[in-house]
């Protein structure tokens, strides 16, 4: 089961994603590997005090909820994944920026690195929850570099949505479902 | 009329093509006004509005004229109003005008979809 969760900044995506992971394990008959921890794959590079503080806060929050944190900024396909009850990846917007700028790759290479990295994560867990970001509904007055990043993230999000069993946009904490393979009568969604 | 909206780079045109196969598309960045009233579908419609405003052409009647003269049109437009209010006065006017025109089109449209990550959610229809 792969879930993609998108939304704007401060929309409550993160809390919703965490709840989905914890809730999913409870649904499984065998407890979904109850003895294993949840993994939290964090992609933000701790540049500066603000980022360090944010990372520390997120780690603490997640530890209380039973998550083990793995910090990984690029090349997810090379990441060693221990047995787990579910993986929360946060977030694709950081990961994409890292693949572009930290590894100095072009858009095509960054696309491949992000998508294949996430695909390899999905093969190592029963439940992968991917958090991404909606940065595309603003006026298009950005620099060429930023515009290229926005285009790349849009393409990556579309590719991840195809891979996912369920796609949800979180609007002020309210989940709006765009795709749900398990749900019958998906007349509300016209999927390509 | 079908209106397909969503953020940039969400796969809106691919979605609309799947929804309305066989539609002949024109590009709002380059099309002329008269093409708009005779085409099957227009994408980058927000860019058409921007172009008209830059040329100083009136757009107040645009939504109503499209509904009258080309009621079966499929319109694909970016949503551009979700960020900070732009500092530039033209950008502010464009952003606001695009929002108002699409709001009016949504009233005329039989179906309205919002596309996120390549997936269309029906908002009206």
Enumerate the spans of chain A where pLDDT stays under 50 for 5 or more consecutive residues.
184-192
How many helices of chain A in DSSP terms? Answer: 5
> Would you report the number of β strands of chain A?
8
**Helix percentage range of chain A:** 40-55%
Please tally the helical runs of chain B, counting DSSP H or I stretches of 4 or more residues: 5
**What percent of residues of chain A are in strands?**
15-25%
Structure overview:
- Helix content of chain A is 41%, strand content 20%.
- Chain A is of the alpha/beta class.
- A 7-stranded mixed beta sheet of chain A has the order 3-2-4-5-1-6-7, with helices on both faces.
- Chain A starts with a strand and ends with a strand.
- Mean pLDDT of chain A is 88; it is low at 184-192.
- Chain B has a single domain (2-124), classed as P-loop containing nucleotide triphosphate hydrolases (Rossmann fold, 3-Layer(aba) Sandwich), CATH 3.40.50.
- In chain B, helix 4 (62-69) packs parallel to helix 5.
- Chain B has a 6-stranded mixed beta sheet with strand order 2-3-4-1-5-6, with helices on both faces.
- Chain B is globular and about 40 Å long.
- In chain B, strand 5 (111-116) and strand 6 (119-124) form a beta hairpin.
- The A-B interface holds A 4, 6, 8, 134-141, 150-151, 153-155, 157-158, 160-162, 167, 169, 176, 178-179, 188-192 and B 6-11, 14-15, 18-19, 78-84, 86, 88, 91, 94-95, 113, 116-122.
- Strand 8 of chain A pairs antiparallel with strand 6 of chain B.
């Amino acid at each position: 089961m792969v879930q993609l969760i998108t939304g704007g900044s401060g929309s409550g995506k993160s809390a919703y994603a965490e709840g989905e992971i914890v809730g999913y394990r409870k649904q499984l008959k065998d407890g979904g590997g109850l003895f294993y921890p949840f993994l939290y794959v964090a992609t933000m590079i701790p540049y500066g005090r603000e980022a360090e503080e944010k990372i520390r806060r997120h780690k603490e929050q997640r530890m209380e909820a039973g998550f083990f944190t793995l910090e990984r900024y690029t090349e997810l396909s090379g990441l060693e994944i221990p047995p787990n009850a579910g993986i929360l990846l946060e977030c694709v917007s950081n990961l994409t920026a890292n693949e572009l700028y930290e590894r100095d790759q072009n858009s095509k290479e960054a696309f491949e690195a992000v998508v294949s990295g996430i695909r390899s994560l999905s093969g190592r867990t029963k439940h992968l929850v991917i958090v991404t970001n909606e940065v595309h509904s603003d006026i298009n007055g950005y620099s060429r570099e930023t515009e290229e990043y926005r285009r790349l993230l849009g393409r990556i999000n579309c590719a991840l949505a195809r891979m996912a069993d369920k796609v949800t946009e979180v609007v002020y904490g309210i989940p709006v479902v765009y795709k749900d393979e398990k749900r019958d009568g998906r007349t509300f969604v016209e999927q390509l | 009329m079908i209106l397909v909206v969503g953020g940039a780079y969400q796969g809106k045109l691919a979605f609309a093509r799947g929804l309305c196969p066989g539609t002949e598309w024109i590009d709002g960045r380059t099309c002329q006004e008269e093409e708009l009233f005779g085409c099957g579908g227009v994408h980058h419609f927000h860019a058409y509005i921007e172009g008209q405003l830059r040329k100083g052409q009136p757009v107040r009647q645009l939504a109503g004229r499209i509904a009258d003269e080309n009621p079966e049109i499929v319109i694909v437009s970016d949503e551009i109003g979700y960020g900070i209010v732009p500092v530039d006065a033209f950008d502010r006017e464009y952003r606001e005008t695009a929002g108002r025109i699409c709001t009016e089109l949504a009233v005329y449209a039989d179906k309205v979809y919002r596309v996120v990550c390549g997936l269309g959610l029906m908002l009206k229809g």
